[in-house]
Write a structure and sequence with these properties.
The complex is a heterodimer of chains A (395) and B (434).
Chain A lengths: L1 H7 L2 H26 L11 E9 L3 E8 L7 E6 L3 E5 L10 E7 L8 E7 L4 E6 L10 H23 L2 H5 L3 H33 L6 H18 L8 H29 L7 H24 L13 H24 L3 H22 L12 H19 L4
Antiparallel strand pairs in A: 1-2, 2-5, 3-4, 3-6, 4-5, 6-7
Chain B lengths: L10 H6 L16 H10 L12 H13 L4 H11 L16 H10 L43 H4 L3 H5 L2 E2 L2 E4 L5 E17 L2 E8 L7 E5 L3 E8 L8 E2 L23 E7 L4 E6 L5 H6 L3 E7 L8 E10 L10 E4 L5 H4 L2 E4 L3 E8 L6 E6 L4 E5 L8 E3 L1 E5 L3 E7 L4 E6 L3 H5 L3 E7 L1
Parallel strand pairs in B: 1-5, 3-6, 5-10, 11-14, 13-21
Antiparallel strand pairs in B: 2-3, 3-4, 6-8, 7-9, 9-10, 11-12, 14-19, 15-18, 15-20, 16-17, 16-19, 20-21
Classes of the chains: A alpha+beta (395), B alpha+beta (434).
Chain lengths: 395, 434
């Protein structure tokens, strides 16, 4: 009876009506809930997350705090290692999700641990540990250039080096090609799991205001869907080239997160710069270069490229796509990034890699279907290779 | 250094002695504290709403100051709001405080309640605080947010006043010729700003922490009417010699005093010395750490040498209620208070400190004075000092009398030589003047 009536209503009007109904329902609910339900019986829930710590000489500690709880928080007083300190900032209540910079006047010493206790207006204590004090590098153009150079050394150069395996890879037969692809998938799978663990950890530790680990899941889902929805738009004449570019993009987004981790570790003085770090990352990321060029060999020859040659310009582009984000990441990590950013970016990287894995897995199958031992060995080798080279990097 | 007994009996003891037939009139010996406290307790739960000026209005005042720079009336307003809390020298370098105003503040610097629009207005501007206050930051030592102090008026008590506030009670004469000394003590609950911007739900005797310093003379008959105007059960447990039913512990005699009920603790004042009282209801640690303690002084019959007398009750505030230590340490209620308002004493004059430790959750406390040594009388029960020292350690419930004279003028720190406590609020200054 109502059905014919509703079916005659224009669709836009129907949508507007339903939206209005829901909005009215919510408004009534909001009005009623306040008067019907009892007030909270407990004290205010106070939660502050320290998103960034900046130690600057002489004797200043800056904390960027964000309210991750439901109630406003007022930082009444602050003590460092059980001594009250002069502090500016945060005199007013900090609202939900709002952030504030607290500037503490404290003569900290290089290399020592500190515990900062934020005493709120209700007497609650929110503690923040500084495991090892080190001067935060000032973001001058010269120092940023150095950080960027580090990004090039651990991101772009190793990927380029890995790409030089292309001539060798091209000589491989069909089975060897599949093994190489399997190796690539193994490498990517390791990266995805590794970054996944880190992303969840970082999210749980410092990104509570914006959902913590869920921020990681959000980033992963968005990156996966974005690549899945747009990969057909990538302009390329060959399927092999497109796959290689997608692998490069996936690795690139991953390297953005990796660069962030390196940059922020650098900023808090946790990272010992030097030859071992650079060489470790280089070995680790050289394998990523192999992964990028592997698709170029694994596919059957296409008519447009009978000699299966690839122009150097294309290789350079792929290297920049895959390794360049490491440069951006290290600079961001050393300057502005918070744990929330890092969590989200790590999520993006994992989502992108998973999408690339989904893309590559069909190519591991034998022509008659199914996986075989060499492919399984290749997958395992990829994981082990990443694990072993990862051990070289203590970051 | 040991004060000779030939020195004159302090006028306080003379004045409040009740051998005179004229004594015994109600209110004769009141110092006003009790009245005020009772009033304060009655409306204790709604205090601070209207009178306490928040940071917003503070900013508004400062913004107004910027807009109308140079207006003399405004300068006066700022000054008036500073009286009572800010140290005299705090505004010496301030552009808003002109010399005339400075002089005016000097006279009223100790006033508990100067009246006027507002008191205890913290000034959120580091430049407003003179280095002469000695309350530094960074390498200059621990401090709250620079320039901030608590609102003593809203709190209902000021540690500067508490320091020399001895409550001698109301006296009358018994038929046997002895002195009957009576007090009303009311248990209540009130929020206290224990650090600038931090309010603590305290349990109090007479609406202050520490509770009133009850002072009497050896041999007096004491009658303490205890009224429980709080929602929790409490008692008053006195240290001293008394019958079991007057001990103020649960299940003995009257036991706990329920909300709305009252009880009269009556016993003889013995032995002379420096004692204390506190609530003894369980959980004991919480009832004490919430603020239910005070000093109980029994003077020896012959009195003590005349001196500038003061009470220092060492305690802490466990604002997280975790029972794992304290977030704030203090003497007489408010951490760092005597850094902002140094204790003024005269050069060469005998200073007598009634030092009590009621600190909960930490095993020991200590007292150290700079640039001087003192005679120490443990528990004040002997007239001969046990030690000549500059540092003394007390466990919870321990107390002793420190007597000293400052030979030089200037500022001398005193603080817990458990320096962690000092950095968390238990420090202050003597200001020795001629």
């Amino acid at each position: 009876m109502a059905e014919p009536l509703l079916s005659r209503v224009p669709r836009s009007a129907l949508a507007a009506g339903i939206v209005a109904l829901i909005a009215t329902g919510l408004a009534v609910l909001a009005a009623l809930a306040g008067s019907v339900l009892p007030d909270r019986t407990g004290p205010p829930v106070e939660s502050l997350v320290v998103e960034r710590t900046v130690l600057s000489a002489p004797g200043t500690i800056e904390l960027v705090v964000r309210n991750a709880g439901p109630d406003p928080v007022t930082v009444a007083q602050v003590s460092v290692n059980d001594a009250f300190v002069a502090v500016t900032g945060g005199e007013q209540p900090i609202g939900r999700l709002a952030s504030e910079t607290l500037r503490l006047d404290y003569p900290w010493e290089n290399g020592l641990p500190y515990t900062v206790s934020l005493l709120t207006s209700t007497g609650a204590v929110i503690e923040h540990a500084i495991p090892m004090a080190a001067a935060t590098p000032a973001a001058t153009s010269a120092s940023l250039l150095q950080v960027a150079l580090l990004g090039v050394m651990i991101g772009v150069v190793p990927v380029l080096l890995g790409m030089t395996t292309l001539p060798l890879l091209r000589r491989a037969g069909p089975t060897a090609s599949r093994v190489l692809m399997a190796l690539t998938v193994g490498l990517l799978a390791f990266l995805a799991v590794d970054a996944g663990i880190e992303g969840l950890e970082v999210g749980a530790a410092g990104a509570a205001a914006f959902g913590g680990s869920m921020l990681f899941v959000l980033g992963a889902a968005l990156a996966f869907l974005l690549l899945a929805g747009t990969q057909r738009l990538i302009p390329d004449t060959t399927r092999a080239g497109r796959v290689a570019l997608l692998v490069a993009i996936g690795i690139g987004v991953h390297n953005l997160g990796e660069g962030l981790a390196v940059g922020s570790a650098l900023a808090v003085g946790e990272l010992a710069l030097g030859t071992s770090l650079v060489v470790g990352f280089a070995l680790h990321n050289t394998t990523e270069g192999m992964a990028v060029v592997a698709p170029l060999t694994a596919l059957p020859p296409v008519p447009a490229q009978p000699d299966r040659t690839v122009r150097p310009g294309r290789l350079l582009l792929l290297a920049i796509v895959a390794g360049g984000p490491a440069v951006v990441g290290t600079v961001l990590g050393a300057t502005l990034t918070t744990e929330s950013h890092a969590t989200f970016l790590l999520g993006l990287g994992v989502g992108a890699i998973v999408q690339v894995i989904v893309l590559l897995v069909p190519q591991l199958r034998r022509p008659e279907g199914g996986l075989d031992l060499p492919v399984a060995a290749g997958l395992g080798a990829g994981v082990v290779l990443m694990y072993v080279t990862g051990l070289l990097v203590a970051a | 250094m040991t004060p000779g007994l030939e020195e004159p009996i302090p006028p306080e003891t003379e004045l409040h002695d009740d051998t005179s037939p004229f004594n015994g009139t109600l209110g004769d010996n009141f110092d006003g504290n009790l009245d005020g406290s009772l009033d304060g307790d009655a409306d204790g739960h709604v205090d601070g709403q209207g009178t306490r000026r928040g940071p917003t209005s503070r900013r508004a005042v400062l913004a107004g100051a910027a807009g109308a720079a140079g207006a003399a009336g405004l300068g006066a307003l700022l000054l008036r709001s500073a009286i009572g809390d800010a140290p005299v020298s705090a505004f010496a370098t301030s552009g808003a405080a002109h010399p005339a105003g400075h002089a005016a503040v000097s006279g009223a610097g100790r006033a508990l309640d100067p009246g006027g629009a507002g008191t205890a207005t913290p000034v959120p501007d580091a430049r407003m605080l003179s280095p002469a206050t000695g309350h530094g930051a960074g390498v200059n030592g621990a401090t709250f947010r620079t320039g901030q102090v608590v609102d003593h008026r809203a709190n209902g008590f000021d540690p500067t006043a508490v320091l020399r506030d001895f409550d001698w009670g109301t006296t009358s004469r018994l038929s046997d010729g002895r002195t009957l000394r009576e007090w009303d003590v009311v248990a209540g609950e009130r929020e206290i700003e224990v650090a600038p911007g931090l309010r603590f739900p305290a349990w109090t005797f007479n609406a202050r922490v520490p509770g009133p310093t009850l002072r009497c003379r050896e041999g007096d008959r004491l009658r303490v009417r205890f009224v429980n105007a709080s929602p929790h059960q409490h008692t008053m447990h006195f240290h001293g010699i008394h019958p079991a039913e007057m001990d103020g512990v649960p299940m003995v005699g009257r036991g706990t005093i329920a909300p709305g009920e009252e009880f009269v603790y009556e016993f003889d004042a013995e032995p002379f010395g420096l004692h204390l009282y506190h609530c003894h209801v369980g959980p004991l640690a919480e009832h004490i750490s919430r603020g239910m303690y005070g000093t109980f002084i029994i003077d020896p019959a012959q009195g003590r040498p005349r001196a500038d007398e003061m009470v220092m009750v060492q305690h802490g505030w466990n604002t997280t209620f975790d029972g794992q230590g304290n977030q704030l340490y203090a003497v007489n209620g408010i951490p760092f208070h005597y850094m902002h308002e140094p204790i003024r004493v005269k050069r060469g004059e005998l200073v007598r400190i009634h030092l009590v430790n009621i600190l909960e959750y930490d095993p020991i406390n200590s007292f150290h004075v700079h640039g001087n040594f003192f005679d120490y009388y443990p528990t004040g029960t002997r007239l001969e000092p046990s030690e000549y020292t500059d540092t003394i350690v007390q466990g919870q419930g321990q107390r002793g009398i420190c007597e000293m004279r400052f030979p030089h003028v200037g500022r001398y720190m005193f603080h817990a030589h458990k320096t962690e406590f000092a950095d968390l609020g238990w420090m202050g200054f003597f200001e020795v003047v001629d």
